[in-house]
Amino acid sequence: MTVTITRDIDKMDQEECKEQQMEHSQNLENGDKILEPKEENETEQNEIDSKNKMSQGEEEEEDKDKEQRMEGIDISDSTNRVLESQEINETERRIIKGDTIGETLYSAKWILKTLISLTNVYENGWNESMEKDLCILWDMSQEKDIVKYLLENDFFKMAEFTLKISQETRLTEIVVGIIGNMCCETEALESLVNTNELATLVLSLISSDDPETVIQVLRVFQAALWDVQKNLDSPWLKKIKECATVGEAITFILKNSLVDDLMIPTIEIIYLISEMELPNDNYLLDVIFDVDQLISALSESMIKIIDQENNPHTNSQLKNIENWYSIIFNTIKKELLKLSDDENNEDYQNMNTVLLKILKPYTMLSNLMLSDDRGLLCIQQCIRMVYFFQKNELIPNLGLIQTIIKIMLNLKSAASTEHEFEDSDHEYFKELHTYSTNYWVEVLKIFNKDQIVKVLQRFDDRDLDAIIELTKTLSKISKESMGGFFQACIEVKAYRT
């Protein structure tokens, strides 16, 4: 392998030497022609010399102009501009292109020399110069033509050798990172899974102690899952199922990490797995994970991730919330998770806590008003999950119900004409307000008077009056439920006086 690459470089050097020799020969021939004697009288000779000087000056000016054009400088106004392709002749194009790869401007010779350094890392040791070169190659590997070139030069064989001997976490991270970039191309992804030992080795690194390496492994894993999603006959499915450490490693990450760059792809991968149904009514989630342990770790992780009550959620938090919601519903729908509202059921109690932490920022009207579509969808999904629990005779945490009611009041305010929004936003607030009031109707149907008292007693007089006024407008409530609600309100107000 090393010999082959060396010969390629030697061949490039020989071709460059031939080009230089040809140019040198042409220069000599031109020089001989200039030095040929001519029979001219002195006057004519002076005129010719003068013209030659002018011509030479013009040529120098033209050369200077061409040189500046090659640098992308407009001579006319001395301002930078893009070099137009029609301004470059074929000779200049060949010189510029040199040994570049495909449509890129990256040097094949440089890449081959870098790959040789990689194969010699065991003998020469890891150093800062090699790290710099490999990082450059890592960036290059985002290009399709570079991926193809690396495949043609057996990069995966070099990567396998390197990962087996590497004792440098940075080296391992970079090599896996290059593989992750390459796997964005279908050809490379297929080639990797067919390089049996390397594919297994990369997936096993998900148990690495180095978070940066794990992040790169997750990128490869994610690409493999996307391939399985498109085609259940993908060889990646078998490879993933054979990797016994994946489930335990991901559960461990959930329990022990709070780094966004690690948590987002980890939860995304769990979501992708939870979506996959295998033949014979089997589920990949159940094959890879101990589902009870996974859901427990996932909820505990979400409790730590959502660490603020007064500020809107960040984009990364909203992404994790969306995936968490989908994972929980998928596991319940596939009957992989059994819940009860028993106080000892830790999974259910943790889910209530997660829902409460998700919704808490929206109890502040200012946060609600600043929410985009993702934030409002997040509210709707949480209310839907709480409603699902209630329909299945799982009583939610009282604090969670109170939070939804407070948001309902804020939505009414946001949907009113007192606030200025775009028409689409205004309609979305109105729809979400209707959705939240429908939930409140269901609460009134299920809860008895004493339970409603417990819900209402935490609201101040202003909010309590707003709840009463809103409830009066609801037509879907039976007389019995409405009567129980008003009795509860009377008790709450009497207790305060």
UniProtKB/TrEMBL annotation:
Residues 1-86 are annotated as: Disordered. Keywords: Nucleus. Residues 7-22, 30-40 have a biased composition (Basic and acidic residues). It is found in: Nucleus. Residues 76-86 have a biased composition (Polar residues). The keyword Nucleus applies. Belongs to the SAAL1 family. This is Protein saal1. The lineage of its organism: Eukaryota, Metazoa, Ecdysozoa, Arthropoda, Hexapoda.
